[in-house]
Design goal:
The chain is built from 20 helices and no strands. The protein is mainly α and about 450 residues long. The termini are far apart.
Amino acid sequence: MGSTTLQLPESVVGALNNAKLATKASQKVEFLGQLHELLIRSEPTHLDAVLSDIVEFQVDRAESVRKAVIGLVTAAVQVRCTAGIVQQAAACLSGLLADNVAAVVKQSAMAAHVVVRAGLALHMSAPQGSADKDSAWTAAQQLQAAISSLATSSTDTGLRMAGIKMNEQAAILYTAPEALALPDAATLVTTADTLVKVLGELLKEPGVQKLPGPVVICCIKALGAVVMQRANMVHRAMPALIALATKGIYRVPTSGDGMSPVAASCGTALKDILNRVMRSNTEATKPWQNRLNSALRTMGAAAVAESALRHIERHTARLRNTEKRKATDQGGPDAKMSRGSTPAGADSSVNNTPARTPTPTPLSQQQSGGGDLLSQLLSGNLGSGDLVTDTQRILEALVKGEQTAAVEVRGLGDLVLLQEGLAQTRSPSPLGRPCRGAIAS
């Protein structure tokens, strides 16, 4: 820490001193965890002054302590991507690649992905050159090369897979649109081509048949990822996948074929990748459609190939229909009106037609059924001389007038109610129970 000790919080200084003075591995891991909490979550600006002291723990005899250092260094790069921190992290992980414990080496290889991305980001931020950033970028490239070599040099299955994943990620990073705009883009593309070529060489026979199944599957998926994510690398990654399927080294497993579980898993992985690429139907993969179709059929996946072809046909039809609708929306002398659309102002437009409202019946029409009869009875013109009979006739006329108004205004429900009222009004005996609204005699 040197002269920066006085500027550091006491909690950071105390945790770091306790970690150095601890004798047990569990205690060191505990204090390193405290530093992780203090520096990563609370005060990342102090990482520049403390990281060099933390990196010293990479030579600790305890495996758990070395793994804790890997986690802290990786987190430091993520929260504070400076040239100094990236360079120290790359040096730390490079040293741990020579560890005698495979688990530590594998964790270092996986953590290196963060450092390589950070180094490339620093390089992009200073395309014209910067001493500190150039040093950090060089350290990140050296770390990537060391891990990529594990794909072919290591005898451990996990480490070989870590090297294959680094080849995949580095090839994708180095051919990104932002990387292709750098002054040294040609160098990056050449490196990416070399990394993809290594993956293709691993899948060639007779070597591929001697590889562990997980390594073969990891390599197939890595090439598939490059094809799906980088159109400018399809011509590099695709031939190895097509050749592996065409030569019949791996086939799609079927019931009773006697295929080993490893071979069946490899065949399934290869079939899935070829199916994904074929269904993508991008501009970069379209020239490979016939070879993909043939390769899938050769390895016993004719049904998968047919399904992919139908998917492409449906997708093409949808695109064609979409283009037609866009052309119709833009209009033109030959453009037809789409279904459900009508020009604004057209009289037949459903959307422009206001909702119909009931028209009330004029008062004169409402009284035509019962009002005229009532006036005639009151004037004595139609009187029968029997008060009950005359009253019954008045009620029937009034109910008939209300029934007509209900049809025009209130609807069928009220009409039923009025009809029931009319039935009650027509009592067989005028002297029986008086109906509702009757005039008492």
